[in-house]
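Our preliminary data section would be incomplete without showing what the modeling component actually yields. Below, a chain of 261 amino acids is followed by its predicted structure, encoded as tokens that our downstream tools consume directly.
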Amino acid sequence: MRRFTLPEGVMLVAFSIYAFVYPFAILLLSFDWMPFGMEWMSSLLLVMLGVAAGAWLWANFDGRGLAVGGAVLVAGLGLEYLGVTTGFPFGAYSYTGVLIPEIVGGVPLAIGFAWLLIVVGGIFTARWALHTSAIWVVCSLGAVLAVSLDFLLEPIAYHVKGYWLWQETEGYYDIPWSNYLAWLVAALLMNALVSRTLDLVKEVSWDWVPVALYVMNVVMFGIVNVAHGFWWSGLIGLILLAGLCVSRMRSALSTLPAPSA
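Predicted structure:
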């Protein structure tokens, strides 16, 4: 029987916790059934997602992967601190105290883990879908996937759960467009960091983990958006899933040997 390494064990425990809670989270978010005093579960799940993504990097890229994961987490928290204190680059917003614990500037620690999930999930799902050695293409699609997931997350986090409040109420479901532009640029820069530090072409183990983390979030928030009447977000989720499936199928077909004459 194969013995798991420490990073693999951490990854599997975090992923298992998330997978166990996952169907209940869909129901609770869709029908606003969150029991009183259980909001801390949202923070726990975000942390588990980030831990699973970071441990996956660690398992496949050793200490360098762990360092890159830590850098993405810290960079995400730094961007959030800049955002809540200056309004740049996302737009003016503030956290409400629902997500815990809060650290410097009132930024929830769990948000750093969310950044880790979205960056790692985006770039390695792009790699899985494209199956190409063109790193700049993978990084670009990874950034698009990251901001696309934010299009699904924002309406629920803002309107339904009240994790943060936007002071500007114009844009996509009253969320400023500057938020999504900032997400795209930030994801591109973080993807560049990942690609310059890690070998994105090498064979990896547990390659399904970042893909599963990303797709599970797309499915969950797609369903929850539709349940709350955010139809455009639900459509984005459907387009994302269809696009990933088509891209993966085309990549798989391109690798098949040509029929002999």
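The longest helix spans residues 40-86. The first strand starts at residue 93 and ends at 95. Preliminary results of this kind motivate Aim 1 of the renewal.
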